[in-house]
Amino acid sequence: MLELDLLPEEYAVCRLPAGSALPPSLSSGPDNKSVISVTWAPDEVSIICPSDRVPQDAIAEASWRCFRVVGPLDLALTGVLASLVSPLAEARVNIIAFSTYDTDYLLVPQVRLSEAVATLTAAGHRLAA
Questions:
Q1: Is this prediction's pTM over 0.85?
Q2: What is the spatial distance between Cα 11 and Cα 7, in angstroms, rounded to a whole number?
Q3: Residue 42 vs residues 13, 15, 29, 74, 90: alpha-carbon distances, Å
Q4: Could you give the count of Cα atoms lying within 13 Å of 117 in the half-sphere of its Cβ?
Q5: What is the number of domains present in the chain?
Q6: Which CATH number covers residue 59?
Q7: By the 8 A CB rule, do 42 and 105 touch?
Q8: What are the mean pLDDT values of the chain's consecutive 10-residue runs (129 residues total)?
Q9: What pLDDT sits at residue 79?
Q10: Which of 21, 42, 43, 58 would you call most buried, defined as having the most Cβ atoms within 10 angstroms of its Cβ?
């Protein structure tokens, strides 16, 4: 199955009004152990970032933990997210997923982290040491 890294910090899912510029708190990009995702859409700007970097004017939902699929993954692979999301859905653990060119990321609520880890390992996935 897949090898997963659990990133060390807590994450937040944020929303800014449509057309917002990249906030100064995110202009330096992530450090070498975290990830930041910014998506500009017609109705909003969505940001996933470490909780200590939430933009000042954002609506934010904090207390998420982030798994990274150890990659890089071939873009032709199918079912990667499904193999993670399906067992978590059966366990009724809510998730937020996003992808980059190299890999996939999956956020779970901090309060459900131990349940998510148990579910993913029972499904055959491994957590990196």
A1: yes
A2: 9
A3: 18, 12, 23, 29, 33
A4: 11
A5: 1
A6: 3.30.2130.10
A7: no
A8: 90 94 80 85 94 92 92 60 88 93 92 96 88
A9: 56
A10: 58
